[in-house]
Give the backbone structure.
Amino acid sequence: MPRALITGITGQDGLYLGELLASKGYEVFGLVRGQSNPKVALVERVVPSIQLLEGDLRDLSSLIGVLEVAQPDEVYNLGAISFVGLSWKQAELTGEITGMGVLRVLEALRIHTGGDMGRVRFYQASSSEMFGKVRETPQTEATAFHPRSPYGVAKAFGHYMTVNYRESYGAHASSGILFNHESPRRGHEFVTRKVTRAVARIALGLQETVALGNLDARRDWGFAGDYVDAMWRMLQQDEPDDYVVATGVTHSIRDLLDVAFARAGVEDWSGLVVQDPRFFRPAEVDLLIGDATKARERLGWAPTVGFTELVRMMVDADLEAERVAAGRRD
Ligand code: NAP
Ligand code: G4F
């Protein structure tokens, strides 16, 4: 039975990946931080076989200890401060967790393996946010980085550390440059979930409007369930490498609003959306669209859920959740 350790198990991707690996017969270990982490109960309900271990990406010795218990064949480093907006307000902490955290996991692995790093496969959750002010369109593995946020800068550091440990120590370390991926499990702070939840609440008469920032930004949005499959495929390759994972289709926040409100029967949302300066960013990433040709050709990976289906799935899930929360039967 292969063994896998996932950092960020309580996050959107961690939960999907934990489910996927458990379904493939892996013994799955998840790193959880803090005291009384409220998301632990959800993880235990969704993946009952999972073994949760305490540790923190800011604490090297805790990571070494977790590796000693888990004895993993594969390590997926998904833990991070992942909300770009927060990264300007807590830039140092973002650097510490999202950036230095990667180095600590790699160092823990180097120590744990006695320098024989190639015997444990490592996945780093890199991000299309590293492309930032994009140098070319669509973005590929060869596109230069120009990060626009402390989060993007921290991810670029983690990405290059991953490449460096591959080149310096022969680590089987792969980096997935993943474009935005969403699901009904997405955190409420991200724009897709913020919109689908607000649409559900507005449709049920629980909220009047939704306050947003820049409606013209464009993202390449896919389904998180598809993207964790790409992570697993990367670690099944004989050679480690970097891969862009994306749908190749881009949409604006306005497109997102069109599809989400239409799903709830609202065709004209202009009076329901207010623009609020609090949600504009100091520096914006205007356009992301990825070219996942390499992942398709080498990993046999392709997205299965398109934009409209994804947004409808999220609106439907939020309508159901908000109905239940409000004790409604209609
Ligand atoms: P998420 O839902 O925000 O999950 C982040 C996870 O990191 C949570 O489990 C969180 O634990 C954990 N974490 C935060 N600080 C930690 C620390 N100090 N020590 C240990 N764990 C810590 O993010 P996601 O959407 O699943 O994304 C997974 C990874 O992929 C992240 O690295 C993200 O930056 C990257 N990524 C995401 C996307 C996307 O579109 N979703 C795209 C590209 C890259 P708590 O529950 O304790 O807070
Ligand atoms: O949903 P977002 O917060 O995602 P963002 O910044 O693209 O980051 C996500 O994807 C990255 C991959 O490219 C990941 F690495 C990262 O961890 C995260 O998962 O914002 C998307 C767009 C931005 O242009 C933002 O300015 O939506 C715009 N937006 C407009 N109004 C808003 C809002 N974003 C949020 N969160 N909230 C708003 O009210």
Q: What stands out?
A: The domain at 3-181+222-245 is CATH 3.40.50.720 (Rossmann fold). Residues 7-8, 10-14, 31, 33-34, 37, 39, 56-58, 78-82, 97, 125, 127, 178, 180-181, 187 surround NAP (ligand 1) (CB under 6 Å). The first strand starts at residue 3 and ends at 7. The chain is about 40% helix and 15% strand.
